[in-house]
Amino acid sequence: MTLYGEKNPPADDRPTVLVTAVTWPDDGPGSATAPTAEPANGPRRPRRMRTLLAAGVTGGVLAAVAGAGAWAYAGDVPRGTNVLDAELGGRSRTEAGRELQAALDRRAATLTAPLRVTVGDRTAEINPADVGLSVDVAATVAAAAEADAHPVSRLVGSRTVDPVVTVDADRLDTTLRKVLGDQVQGMTLPAITYQGTTPKVVQPKPGLAFDPQRTAEVVRAGWLAGTPVTVPLVESHPATTAEELDRLVAELAKPAVAAPVTLRTGRGSVTVPPAAIAKSLRFTADKAGRLTPTVDVKRLRTALGDDLAAIEVPPKDATIAISGGRPKVTEGQPGQQLDTATLSRDLLAVLPKSDGREVTGELKPTPPELTAEKLAGLGIKERVSTFTTRFTGGMASSRSQNIATIAKEVDGAIVLPGKTFSLNGHTGERGYAQGYRDAPVILDGKLVPGVGGGTSQFTTTLFNASYYAGLEDVEHKPHSYWFDRYPAVIESTIFWPSLDFKFRNNTPHGLLIDTSYTSSTITVSIWSTKIYDSVKTEYGPRRNVTTPKLIHLEPGPTCIPSNGINGFTQDAFRVIKKDGKVVKREKFTWRYEAEPRYVCGPKPS
C-alpha cells in the first residue's frame, strides 16, 4: 500500500540480474532430503561451512555481474557503437567527439574532393564546401549516445550509427541549377486575365525540377561514400488542373462580365459596368499553381472613378500651415466609405449569376489617416532650413506662372519619418489640363518651348531646402548646362515622367514643406525639429573648362537664342555639424556641358 505524502525510496536504475538459486541439502533431523549415506568422496562439510560457501558463491556471482554492468555502462556512448569505423563505445561525449573528428581527418582527402554530380544529361563537379556539406560531430555523438541501451545489448553485440551530415539547401539548389541549366522547366502557372471584357487563359503545364528532400539525401550519401551522385528530377504539376481552369472560365470569368452589377447603399446606387468588373476581378495563382479569384476593391475604385463620389464622403486629413510665423494645426474630418471586405465578398458571390446581380454596400465611418493629435506629435515646430532663388519676367510670364503653380501644389505637403517624397509622385503629370503653360525647356541640348518650363527652378529651390535641412538625397539630376541663377552642382532639373526629384525624411520627426513666392522670387522652407548645428557647402575648384560653340538655327517661333555658357566639372561637399563636430561630409560632383551660343539666323556669307 502506498501512502500519499510519504517519501518513496529512490528508484534503482542499476541493471537487474537474474541469478539461479542454489539449494543445499538440510542435514537436520527429520529432513526429507537428508542423505542416508556418506558421500562417495568423503564426509559432508559442516552446515556452517556450506552456508559460508554458498554466500561466497552468491557474492562472487553478484560481484561478477556488478563488474560486467559497470563495464557495460562505462562512458556516455554504449559499448560496441561505431561511426565511420571509429569505435566510440565506452567513451565520454568529449572523448567520442575527438575520436570521430580524428576519423574525419583521416578521410579528409575524400570529404574535400570535388563531388561528381549528374543532373539530367549533364555532369559536373561541385566543391563540398560550396554547398555546406559537413559532418555535425556534436549531433553525431549525441545520436551515438542515444543508441540502443538495453542491458543485454550493452554487454554483447555492436551497432553502427550513421553520421549526421548537414548541407545548405539553398546553396545546393543554386549550384545544381547552374549544372542543370535550361533542363529545369518551371511550372506554367494557370492564369485568367481580361483583354477588355474577354477572358484570356494560360493553360497549366507541369515543370521539371528537383525534389529538395530527395536531392539532399542522395548528395549527402554520395559525398560521405565518395561516389558519383545522380540527382533525380521529378515532374511538378500545378494544383489547378486544365479542367478546373476551364470550369472557372465557364462558371465565373465569362458570366462575371456578361452584365453590369448594381451597387446599392443608403446614400444611393452605382452601376458597376462589365469593364470595371474586368479590371477588378483577379485570378491569383500561388506558388503551387492554385488559382484563387478575388475582387480587388482598390482597382474597382479606380475603375469607377468619380462615380463613387455620389455615395461616398472621403475623409479629410488634418492640416498644418504656417500662420504668424508659427505652425498651426487644423483638425481633419471623418468620411463615409464602402466596407471593402464585405463588398469584395458579396460582389464575388453575384458575379457568376445571370440575374439578381445586385449587392448592398455598407458605408462605414472612415477616420482621416492623419489626425490633429498625430500631426501635433510629429515635432513640426520650427523652421530648419529655407532657400530662395530669383527669376525675371514678373508674374505675367508663362515661366513665372508655372513656378507659382507647382509651388501651390507642393505647399503644405507633410513627409512622415522614414518616408520618401517624390515631386513627380506628388504633383502627377504637369500639363495644360493641370494649369501649366508653354515656356522654355532644355530638349536635346537646346532651349525650346515646352509645357511646364520653369518647374525646374522650383525643383532646384526645393532640392536646396531639403539639402540644407540635412535630409537624405534619393534622386536628383542637375541641368546639362549651368545657369548662374542656381548654385553650381547643388541644383536639380525635372521632367515628367522620366526625371524626378526625391528625398527621404531620415529623421525621427515629421516635416512640412512651406512654399511662398513673389513676382521675382520663389522660396521653400522645411519645418520640423532642428537636429543639426549647421549644414554648409564647400566647393572644389572648377576643372576641365570648355567654351561654347557657335550654332546658327533656322529662325522661327521655336528658335530661342542664347549667349552660350562655359562647361566645367566641379565638386561640392555637404558638411553637416552636430554638437560642434562634423558628423557627415558628402561629396556631390557634376559635369556641365558647354551650352552653345545659339543664333536664330543663317551664317553670314
TrEMBL record:
Q: Enumerate the transmembrane spans.
A: 52-74
Does this UniProt record's set of keywords contain Transmembrane?
yes
Q: Which Pfam families match?
A: PG_binding_4 (PF12229), VanW (PF04294)
Q: For the region Disordered, what residue ranges are annotated? A: 24-46
Source domain of life is Bacteria
Keyword annotations for this protein, in alphabetical order, are: Membrane, Transmembrane, Transmembrane helix
Where would one find the signal peptide in this protein?
Answer: none
Every copy of the YoaR-like putative peptidoglycan binding domain together lies at 241-359
Which PANTHER family did the record assign? EXPORTED PROTEIN, EXPORTED PROTEIN-RELATED
What is the protein's given name? VanW family protein
What's the source species for this entry?
Micromonospora vulcania
Highest lineage ranks of the organism?
A: Bacteria, Bacillati, Actinomycetota, Actinomycetes, Micromonosporales
